[in-house]
Amino acid sequence: MADTRTTKPGIKRLLITITTLLPFFFGIPLWLNSTQVYRAPLPFKDVDALGSWASENTLLLPCRLNVIFASKDEFLTKPELDSVASQLILHVQSLMGGNSSDHETCQNGFNIQVKYDTENVCLTSGQTLDSPTWPCGLVKYGFFNSAQLSDDILDNVLWNYANKEENESTVQDEGGLYTVVVLRKSQIESLDSFSKDDVSTGGCTNEQSSICKSKTGWSTVVGKYRHAWIIGDFNSSTVESEVVPRIGDVALTFLRGSRSASGRSKARNLPLSAEGEAILSFSLLNADPDTWIFDWDFEELKRQFFQPVVEALSGIARLTIESQVLYYTPKAVQSRWDASLNAHVVAVKQLPFFVNSNEWHLDTSSAAAGRSKLLHFAIYVPGGGEYPLHFLRKNDQLSSTDGFTSPGWGGVVVYNPTNLSTISSDSHSSFHRITPKEFESIAGVIVAQLRTLFGLPPILSDDPETGYFSLSPARTGFAEWELDLLLRRRAISDMTAAASTLMSLSRLVQKLSSMVIMDEIGEQVLRFLSFL
């Protein structure tokens, strides 16, 4: 048979092979594109730079100090005022310099401005502040007429002056701006209603005024808001040696809650969840209901004592309140009878074992499951077999509060009922509802415990021996300058935690090439970096 092939052998086979393989060659890129892991672009270099900076530096926030020398006459010249401002700036910077790692530290210490305010003269020296300060006019406003009265009245007078309508702006409500008013005691004593002999002879009877309580002749008072005042004997030649150190102490108080240059906060991290939330759980523990049963109208107690505290802290934390009443909740340690004290006592060294975790079912909040921080406040009512129950301090003296705090957990306070005659005469002799008046002392202890948990001293104490005094708001328990301090801690803690989390995410993403990164994550990273 004759060969009729018109093409060379193998070409058709080659075309069929190419035609068959061609879709695979074009399909491979499409397949790879459809199966690859989506990864939104992240600024890894910027994140690494932020992590390195955060590990080597401390975030600093701006603070401003406005010092006003108020006087009815003129005792300072402009050069003398400039010298005082220079010495004050150097003194405060020296106090800040040794503790620059403290997270409350303001940027470059304080920016300090000094004013000289008399009836006819208004001078300014020092650094320029980037926000409105108190205007001159304290003398004409009647400040000296109020300085002889109680500290609370003077504190409110200063607040009203800072917020009076004719001011260009309200300066008192701006966090980070603090004012110290300085005046000479002789100008207060010259008032007709305030006898100079009363103070010089120690016969001052106004116990509501710190100038009467001070044993040094000086009075330094830190108010409830964002101002303080200093009263003492000085003149143009002694102002730098007498007044400047006291202003420095006030600056340290505003900065870290302590006028000691070595003072450090007890709690660097606030007892809050990552979202800045916490649940305050109040439990009334009836140790022995067979003796008596105590109950409460907690909604009323919450309204009177705790809601103002929650509102004051709202800018720092989202706090919610829960309550419960438990029965048959004995403590985990044994008390002993002390005949000399006529009381059952528990030694301070036993307090770590006081809480009975087996019988005290405190973790009942469903809202706390997962993310919210739970802070317990247990009010322990002892039974008749151990009444009255007190805590015995190391010096063998009874505790004045009968309470203690456990960091990160909460606090315990013992309630020894004082109205036993009322209870026994009631028709239901074993039942009693705690009234707001009876609960007032307990609420004070709980607020002091909450302050301790947030890293502040339990109370703002006075020191007549050195002439330093502090005022604390009765309703909230937190001064405004203390709220500023907590807010700085919260801001810096959140920023540090966010930088650490971002750094960990960056390292993880770079190691796991198959990890999916959605656009939302990339946007959040870019958004956080834009805030810095």
Automatic annotation (TrEMBL):
Top-level division of the source organism's lineage: Eukaryota
Keywords: Endoplasmic reticulum, Glycoprotein, GPI-anchor biosynthesis, Membrane, Transmembrane, Transmembrane helix
UniProt topology in membrane: Multi-pass membrane protein
Pathway(s) annotated for this protein in UniProt: Glycolipid biosynthesis; glycosylphosphatidylinositol-anchor biosynthesis
InterPro entries per record: PtdIno-glycan_biosynth_class_S (IPR019540)
CC annotations in GO: GPI-anchor transamidase complex
Transmembrane domains' residue ranges: 14-32
Primary localisation category: endoplasmic reticulum
A Gene Ontology biological process term: attachment of GPI anchor to protein
Cell compartments where the protein resides: Endoplasmic reticulum membrane
Family statement drawn from the similarity comment of this UniProt entry: Belongs to the PIGS family.
Name under which the protein is recorded: GPI transamidase component PIG-S
